[in-house]
Fold each of these.
Amino acid sequence: MNKKQKKLLIRVLAAGAMLLVLMLLPLSEYPVLRFFLFLIPYFTVGYDILRKAWKGILHRQVFDENFLMAVATIGAMILGEYAEGVAVMWFYQIGELFQSYAVGKSRQNISALMDIRPDYANLEEDGEVTRVDPDEVEIGSLIVVGPGEKIPIDGIVEEGASTLNTAALTGESLPRDVAPGDEVLSGCVNTSGLLRIRTTREFDESTASKILDLVENASSRKSESEQFITKFARYYTPAVCYAAFAVAILPPLVQILFGSWFNGGIVFGEALTFADVLGIFSTWIYRALTFLVISCPCAIVVSIPLSFFGGIGGASAQGILIKGSNYMETLANVRTVAFDKTGTITKGNFEVAAVHHASIDNNELLEMAALAESHSTHPISRSLALAYGKPLDRSRVLDVREISGKGVVAQILGKGFAAEAPSLPGLPMEQTVHTVTVGNMRLMEAEGIEAIACHSTGTIVHMAVDGKYVGHIVISDELKPEADEAMKALRAAGVDRTVMLTGDKEKVAAAVAKEVGIDEVRAELLPAEKVEAVEKLLETAGTGKVAFVGDGINDAPVLRRADIGIAMGALGSDAAIEAADVVLMDDDPRKIAKAIRIAGKCIHIVKENIYFAIFVKLACLILGALGIANMWLAIFADVGVMVICVINAMRCLAVKKL
């Protein structure tokens, strides 16, 4: 509990104790003293509400819940209903206390995320380390991060090795080892060794800043429910004030002029005394005040934004950043999910799966293939070097001719290469230059080399040395181990249709889709064709919404075009944070279903609160207008309903086990 909440709690407890004592004391014979004594708990618990109401009047923003509470309670005090006047204010403040506590619980989930904001950066210049504001650090600067410190700005490790805690960014306490040459992101906590990092971005463009900006601005993107409630309150509050005024004035005038056939006791034409008129007006003013208290829209106005705020906060704590409550409503109605393949269903890490039909030693084959491709930064090239597993002597590569869309032909010195291979000339190693052809089947056909077809799933790299076929390498993108479980979770969350949209080959895409359980596959698509495919899905989706899940780098147009774009594994990706509506802070596809379940729970709670509050208030308004409901029932209809709705809204925070 913060200081403000503690002060309010003390005021509520003090006013409650005073109210109880005054109700028990025999003060009926001392009306003036009774009035002034009841003013003490009244002002103790309600002075801030009265002040806000007065400020609203001065600023011509009259019609709000503070004004309603002030008018209702002051009116009750004037009519002599001192206990009820204090009680209305007392219960209203209890409701405010519950609301404040609920908002605080929601903020706790977001505050853990906000804790990624670094307070300083250790800037190293000319061998001296100075603590500066992160905003002052320029791109290319050298910063030092010690054990236990947050990384303030994105960069590349130049010196040192350590383990990073990424929990604040991903929602999972998975340690990540880093060494020189590795990229590190702001917001991670250095847990062990000293790191020297060369910054690659300014602070405002770093991952932590962008995430914080995203979460802080989420509340500005209101859902349709919130927009409706805002408009509703704008017209509803003045309407009920005028209605209460009408209840206070019109029925007593009718009763005085035409006699009372509904209250009894006065016959048409009978002369009315001043006391009779005052009694009639007092009765209807009391009903009008009861009407005002009942009609206060606090329960709806408070609980609905609180529900969305709690859902966004709970999702953030799980590493799911939802950019606004409007996307909550869309997420809850997702029935079709389209996926990119690489980086979404697969890890995007190409690796050598097998070597087939090799006529030379596998290691030698991999070495020559890796040397031939060593000039390239393509993932397949890196996978060949990784599979070889030893340092490459690139000086042996004399010439490389790249053939677009097919592969490469390289001239490589034969030093250290396969004197044992029977298919190669047995020349001295230092003098042997080999022509190494590495590529697809079309390259083999173009070079007149008879290659052996491969039926395995993946990218097939055929290889020949000096015009003779020596085998082929199967390279595949590793599936995420959680992918099949994610598809089952999506079906359990109400998703009817899953589709893969990929630029990969049909055979590879179909094999991946079958393995993880995706319903439909559309392969060999260009980015523009992916957009067209999503548009067709939108046309056939009916009332359900279409989500597209991509890595956020090459799929920005599709992320924008879908009803809702989800960036998968997009940690640190500018394109993901800009284009997507939901950003998953790690690459776990199971969190897509979790995001849908969180949104569904949030929307369900919002609807519960709306229906419950409107039903109770309408019933009590009718009873109040007829004189059946008194101020105590009005207190329940206002504060009681608000407390119930706020407590219900707090359920949005409980998302960990969804």
Amino acid sequence: MTKQSFLKGAFILIAAGLITRLLGFINKIVVARIMGAEGVGLYMMAVPTLLLVITLTQMGLPVAISKLVAEADADQDRARIKRILVVSLSVTGVLSILFTVVMILAAPIISKTLLTDSRAFYPLIAISPIVPIVALSSVLRGYFQGLQNMKPTAYSQVIEQIVRILLVAALTTAFLPLGLEYAAAGAMVSVVIGELASLIFMIAMFKQKKRFRVRKQFFSYAKEGKRTFEDLMSIALPTTGSRLIGSVSFFFEPIVVAQSLAIAGVATTIATAQYGELSGYVIPMLLLPTFITYSLSVSLVPAISEAAYQNNYSLIHHRLAQALRLALVSGGGAVVVLYVYAEPVMELVYNAPTVATYLKVMAPFSIFLYFQSPLQAALQALGLAKAAMINSFIGAFVKIGAIFVLASRPELGIMGAALAIVVGFLLVTLLHFATLVKTISFTLHLRDVLKVIFAIFITGYFSTWLLNHSFLQQSLVVKTSLSVLTTGFIYMFLILILGLIKRDEVNRIPFLRKLL
């Protein structure tokens, strides 16, 4: 099986992530244009419940599988790799069935009582079949990532988005005459079918690349897998705790927002629409650049796990510094674009220029969000998942409390929820970084940070000038596109001149080597 280096594996995932984010972004635009803010609100109200159930089903196993398979592969221990797979499939199989049933039975209570909008019942029911599909896919992805082969994960992500985008417009339009709740359910069905297509591809890749027969003596391996189960759980449970906290926080987020806005005197339908604007328009825009940091994180877990297993701490520091520098560089460019072009982008994408106010408030702080994923991946790879869980709990607790305090104030309303979300991810990122500093004496290179800040301010200055003085005779879409492209070239030129992307990093990626 082809094994990639940290940078090459990350680049493969970044390329796939760029494609999937763009396709996913188109998908969100289609949904928003067809259903409007209220329909998106119903759709987004079901998402936190889904993520909570998936988190409970996965039990943090993808990260644990990736880490343990990387260690076993370093020792060429195929029997151990098979035990890891067998135990993981057994656990996720049982849990997926259990939690799918619970999700279906609890849907009426969740929608009517907790979310205060009974129409959310239909998207909740429509999305429930995805749980066992995602559970099985996550096991296979963890296996491939542990072997540092990122291509199956990359291809499966692209396939999932292509299938989803081919179906979403047809299904939402077909169900819309029945009501917004049915249109939202139609959008969820497209997600399920997309994940199923991705799973079928993953199974085909696994059968092609596997080094052993999984079904042979499956139950024998399962019975003898007590030690493997304990090893998996020692990593998975703290990881689950961290993700569970995030999922529980996300689950309660629309509930607390709805209740807080009700206290502030906002009607239910308006509150649903406002939450749809924040969670369906603004947050996806902030998360759009995270495909880069997510890709770095996925590659970082096996790379650091292998280095830690071999007690190579200089390599750990090098890999982590490399990932954070690339996250900082990519995040810096995103901050400029999201802040300067907030209004034209929101108008072009969602026909909602007034929502740009939330984006401009949140964008400058999003650099901390882009740091968070690599930092958490490093903690998990170093066996510090428990510390990551505690940090996530503190951040989630503060965020939910801040939402209630700020969003319930009539003068702030939904803007209070936006500010609280910023406080949450900022706090978690700082706590993750402090944990790494304390544990492995890791330090961030201040010179690189100052260089990126310099590049952000210079690019931001020229971008503001471009927005107000250039391409004025062009249509909004042409003017914005040309301005954003010019901004990208200016920022890329600055980071290359400042040496924020190293020559040896460029040389390891054939495409970039030819381009530059």
